[in-house]
Amino acid sequence: MILINSLPQECKDFARQKAEELPTLNNSITKGEGNYVGFVGEWIVRKFLGGVSSNTYDYDIVLDNGETVDVKTKKTKFEPQPHYECSVAAYNTKQKCDYYAFVRVDEENNRAWYLGVYRKGDYYKDARQLKKGDLDPSNNFVCKADCFNLPISKLEFSPDDL
User: Fold this and answer.
1) Max CA distance (Å), the chain
2) Which of 39, 54, 78, 123 could disulfide-link 15, Cβ–Cβ 3.0 to 4.6 Å?
3) How many Å apart are CA 110 and CA 7, to the nearest integer?
4) Among the residues of the chain, which ranges form H helices?
């Protein structure tokens, strides 16, 4: 897990421009309010893993070797801890990507954390499934949608580490 203590202006400009261009996505839990934060996450992942943006339903980034990454970003007010969990909504299980990358963004304090990556093919085998309305006992959060959760401590820095 790596802290970006002050989001660069380049990151914020990229995220703002991309969020303005994007309509509200189907199944958006936040009804489009998370688009800016999502693009902050995408910018951060590209800085650590390389590649180019390629916003499709299936993935956000194409790495130099042709593998694809879908970025999952959550807005937060707290510094993430290794036992905190990353989530992938159940309606995203059919995405055709090679990896999921996870980021947390604290807009209020202008900082973010690159949490790491996980191979999509292994994610659903290793993650814990929760249903909408379930109370997640690890953090007392009531799930807003069916999802699959995996602790941050299970992530790796890059695909090369998997």
Assistant:
1) 40
2) 39
3) 6
4) 9-21, 35-49, 120-126
How many other C-beta atoms lie within 10 A of the C-beta of residue 154? Answer: 15
Q: Kindly report, residue by residue over 90-145, the tens digit of the pLDDT.
A: 988 889 999 999 999 999 999 999 999 999 999 999 999 999 999 887 778 888 88
pTM value? 0.89
The full set of domain ranges for the chain reads 2-161
Residue 151: closest CA among 109, 132, 123? 123
Q: Residues 53-58: contacts with CB within 8 Å, 24+ apart?
A: 53/18, 55/18, 55/22, 57/95, 58/95, 58/96, 58/97
26 class by beta-carbon count within 10 Å (0-12 exposed, 13-18 middle, 19+ buried): exposed
Nearest to 42 by CA among 67, 1, 14: 14
Pairing of β 141-142 and β 61-62: unpaired
Residue 30 tokens read as: 């936040």
Which residue is it, tokens 């590649």? 51
